């Protein structure tokens, strides 16, 4: 049984990744405010990767097949959304090294989440 590739799942997954990233950023911001945890790029990358991983996992689980495609598509969609929003909100030129780092994190997290999401049995 071959299911067709559903573009609507990618849109939902990208929106889910965005919402998760915002919620995790709020929690991390509260932790920074009320504790002595130091701020670092590593924690921001963890938030970034974790939100894409979870969204890709859920998207691929709902898709049922083609987990790598769904996961990578969610990662690419999230990167494009982040680029658009940062282009609107910040006037500075983006750091290409940080952009490449975030792209690699999103693709690895999305691909991994998509593959694992397909492996979980459908109910």
From TrEMBL:
It holds the Pfam family DUF3792. The chain crosses the membrane at residues 9-30, 42-61, 68-91, 103-120. Keywords: Membrane, Transmembrane, Transmembrane helix. It comes from the Bacteria. InterPro entries: DUF3792_TM. NCBIfam families: TIGR04086_membr. This is Putative membrane protein, TIGR04086 family/integral membrane protein, TIGR04097 family. It comes from Desulfosporosinus orientis (strain ATCC 19365 / DSM 765 / NCIMB 8382 / VKM B-1628 / Singapore I) (Desulfotomaculum orientis). The lineage of its organism: Bacteria, Bacillati, Bacillota, Clostridia, Eubacteriales.
